[in-house]
Write a structure and sequence with these properties.
The longest helix has 25 residues, at about 5-25. The chain is α/β, with parallel strands linked by helices. The chain starts with a helix and ends with a helix. Strands 9-8-10-11-13-12 form a six-stranded parallel β-sheet, with helices on both faces. It has a five-stranded parallel β-sheet with strand order 1-2-3-7-6, with helices on both faces. The protein has a five-stranded mixed β-sheet with strand order 14-16-15-17-18, with helices on one face. Bound molecules: thiamine diphosphate (TPP). The site of thiamine diphosphate has 20 residues, from helix 2, helix 6 and strand 4.
Length: about 675
Amino acid sequence: MTTIDRARHDKLANAIRGLAMDGVEQAKSGHPGLPMGAADVATVLFTRVMKYDAADPRWPDRDRFVLSAGHGSMLLYALLYLTGTPGMELDDLKKFRQLESKTPGHPENFMTLGVETTTGPLGQGLATAVGMAMAERMLAAEFGRKVVDHYTYVLASDGDLMEGISHEAIALAGHQKLNKLIVLWDDNGISIDGPLSISDNVDQVARFKACGWRAERVDGHDPDAIEAAIRRAQKSSKPTMIACKTIIGFGAPKKQGTSKAHGEALGAEELAAAKKNLGITGGAFEVAADVLKAWREAGKAGANEHANWRSRFGLLSDRKRAEFERRLAHGVPARLGKAILAHKKALIAAPQAVATRKASELALEAITPVMPELVMGSADLTPSNNTRTKAAEDFTPKTPKGRYVRYGIREHGMAAAMNGITLHGGFRTGGGTFLVFADYARPSMRLAALMGLPIVYVMTHDSIGLGEDGPTHQPVEQIASLRCMPNMHVFRPADAIETAEAWQFALENTKGPTVLALSRQNLPQLRTDATATNRSAKGGYELLAAEGGKAQVTLFASGSEVEIAVAARKLLAEKGVRARVVSVPSLELLLAQDEATRAAIIGTAPVKIAIEAGVRFGWDGVIGDDGAFVGMSSFGASGPYKEVYKHFGITPEAVADAAMKRHNG
Ligand SMILES: Cc1ncc(C[n+]2csc(CCOP(=O)(O)OP(=O)(O)O)c2C)c(N)n1
């Protein structure tokens, strides 16, 4: 590199540093250290390496950039402004971390155009990027390299690599040989508590290599070395990790290289000294005209490639183009509703007394032919989760058209990868594990809910009904806890028809994720109707009315306990008490209905009883705090499931007794 080139690079990188310092100073909150330390790496990426057109951050064939260390958000916001991304102005940088600004504390993809994924919880971005790289390969296999051919770059911090999820993610990426995934590690040796050496001693290069990656070390302040390493990475047959040795807070004379640069404003004096040090002139948020011009040129450099891509895309057949566009927009296939209805009718013609996990497989067999974009998988529980249809092919480096992912025993990595697959575009996805292990996947599920990603979690073995595996495997509080999550829908279907309806709801809702809580044990088919209406979609409905007059008792139940409610209704009838049964496949959906709808479903019977083999939490919204609840208030127990149900008193007799007590009392 000539000295002129180096001087130019430094000016560009220092513009990031200046804006990051100013943004954090103005907000009196934020993290200047990472943007200042990683500015050289980011500048190389955005001025020399990445394929992007700042004018259209949604161009499908752009390279993806994931700032996994979301606390360094000012780096990303500065880049978006400098490259000329629409909607990101200096004024937005001045509103860093303010309510409703485009520059929230951590990058939120739903607030800011150009942010690929929401990051902040360390490790998530890295693991999400693995899914993006998987989706890139799958989509290219289907539509061809002429229209899908891009890289996924990640900037990860020490914290990203320390989090457990990183291991699941890199092992999966190494196994899949995701060679278009390139991770740049901001190797600054500093975290919040101080030098990394007080808590970590891992040889990350060796770790990545052991996971099947290429890995090398470079000076993270040497732009040519960084670029050369990336060029090598681009040619690799493996994913690459580049350890970029950097100085946190680069340029701040007293704070650089220390944890003091990590997460607070530098202070006026240190900021001024840093700017002087770096040769940044002008006031706060000022970028010299020649520097801004150079950045804007970099932001436009991909416009040609973008235009060429449009021409190539235009050469695809009309049908293929329309399909590509539908898929990228997560458009629901027009034939889905019909396929579900036909499936429901077939179930009525030949009722299936199967576990709802099996019913889910039957639904998938009906859905996949009309939804070629559906990518399923499981965290090593395929035969238990029933997530794989007969025609499915595994996704492997040799079979990139495969739509079934063997995630291995990596629930968290799976959930994050599903976020990436969905964010990348072109696919809808679902993955399976036991419901109790939702806890292993939860941080990524939470991000899916926050981002509004339409992912389906197939979570089987949904209660003490799993039996012998015992309390470690029997979910008790998981259903309630998932219901609490904003924008997460939880369905616990009672039979094969409700299972099909739950799938329909999950796939037609493109604005958020859905958990399907499915039974291990067989259940009777209770529904006798199959119309185009999705009766489960309001969360609850009257399955059986009271016979012989107004209902005296309403029995509410979800999933496997609807069968118990139906049997209890019969016992009550024998005692001359009229009961109706309301099936509640989705409690929180029922509670979210408008008051009139909710009231009509809940009804006015004086006795209200809820039955669910989980904790009571949430059911008061239906039965009131004076209603009776038949369910769990402790962990479960190991034993044959019918005995376990008896042991915990979740039986038709117990329900009938509870109803009689209230009826008489
Ligand atoms: C899962 C998770 N745990 C904790 C945090 C809080 N946190 C933010 S940054 C950070 C560590 C900072 O160290 P590093 O990743 O090296 O970033 P740098 O200091 O280089 O900016 C922590 C613990 C978080 N964001 N996510």
